[in-house]
Design goal:
mainly alpha, about 180 residues, about 0% strand
Amino acid sequence: MKPNKTFSIILSGIFIALAIVIQYVGKTIPGISQLIIGSIINCILISSCLYTSAYYASIVAVFTPITAFLTAVIPAAQGPFIPFISIANLFLVLIFSLFKSSYKSPFIFIGIIIAAIFKFLFLYISANYLIKFLDLNLPVKIQEALKISMGITQLITSLIGGFLAALLYRMFVNRKVING
């Protein structure tokens, strides 16, 4: 699908708005886990790449951690980690965009796996090593929380969200809701 510029801008805005709603719901309803919300956010990131382009998906990728911070999903003490999350999201959408050429091809799923691994590795290395190396002066308690939340859960949510986005896209194309 090769949408025009205006349509891509509108879709990007819709994806960002949807992410804000999902983040807010995740924050306000007790018991909704990082696994569910993270998977939906990653689905939004991959969907933004499938329905627009790597350029517009990059905008969505950068804005989602900022909106999470502004809606207090990411606590203020973890604010210095937002650039790392944005970069990890960029890894996800940019690497995936290299593989998205055909929704019928198995490469779309290979792209999701490779992109999810890169996102996970970047977040894991950032939470475990880069914040110390860059001396961000995060409290020890926050560093420990980041090590947990930026661990294997990030890989799992990226994979679930990516596969869900690819399956939804394939379904929409097969039902001729959109052009593939």
